Amino acid sequence: RLLEETESPDEALACYEQAAGALPRAPAPLIALERLLSRLNRWPEAIAASLKLQKLVPDRGKLVTARRRVLYARALLAEARADEALKQAQVALAEVPNLAAAILTRGDALYQLGQRAQAREAWLEAAREAPHVTALSLDRLEGTGSTADREAARRFAQDMIEREATGITSWRLYAWMADDALRRKDVGEARAWVERVAD
Fold first, then answer.
1. How many degrees, rounded to 5, is the angle at CA 185 between CA 180 and CA 189?
2. What whole-number distance in Å separates Cα of residue 40 and Cα of residue 130?
3. How far is CA 68 from the centre of its chain?
4. Under a CB-based contact definition with an 8 Å cutoff, are residues 30 and 53 in contact?
5. Within its chain, how far is the Cα of 53 from the centroid?
6. Do 88 and 69 contact (CB within 8 A), yes or no?
């Protein structure tokens, strides 16, 4: 850890690997190794370390591995490697079903691959599974410029409001509906939604 703090990551990695080899039943060295590999964006190696962690701490290891796969998929998307990103997102979901970040990333990969209807469904599924990602899903649907996506977003927002979404999710939905009404030049409806945000 001292080597890691003094910006000697390669030496720190060597120490963590040595510790993991010396203490094969101890999760701590693997956790430290996996975290440093993640910090260095060495995703395949981080995933390999977290897979070893799964053998020692199955539940935590699965969640860590799935999250690292999502981060790896995001990096692949940034490089326009959508096919590989989609595979990582799907494997993450096989490890941890209903992981919202993985569902969103699957949608992003599908969108990059030109499968827009499937991408839209994935984004909406993520928001249904985890209301805290509602804003991210709506932002993606808005960003496509598609009338069909905007209609789907409106129906979703209305459905969430009818289900009495609360907290940050509720005011984000009201604000989105106000913006949508303004785009349709319905000032009265927009004002009503703004008032709900204020309340």
1. 65
2. 29
3. 11
4. yes
5. 22
6. yes
- Residue 137 CB coordination number (10 Å): 27
> Residue holding tokens 């510790």?
19
How would DSSP label each residue in the chain?
Answer: -HHHHTT-HHHHHHHHHHHHHH-TT-HHHHHHHHHHHHHTT-HHHHHHHHHHHHHHSHHHHHHHHHHHHHHHHHHHHHTT-HHHHHHHHHHHHHHSTT-HHHHHHHHHHHHHTT-HHHHHHHHHHHHHH-GGGHHHHHHHHHHT--HHHHHHHHHHHHHHHHTT--HHHHHHHHHHHHHHHHHTT-HHHHHHHHHHHH-
Angle between helices 58-78 and 43-56 (to 10 degrees): 170
- CA–CA separation, 28 vs 68, rounded Å? 17
The low-confidence residues of the chain, meaning pLDDT below 50, are none
pLDDT of residue 78: 96
Backbone angle region of 23, left / alpha / beta, with phi > 0 → left and psi within -120 to 50 → alpha: beta
Q: What is the distance between the alpha carbons of residues 191 and 49, in angstroms, rounded to a whole number?
A: 53
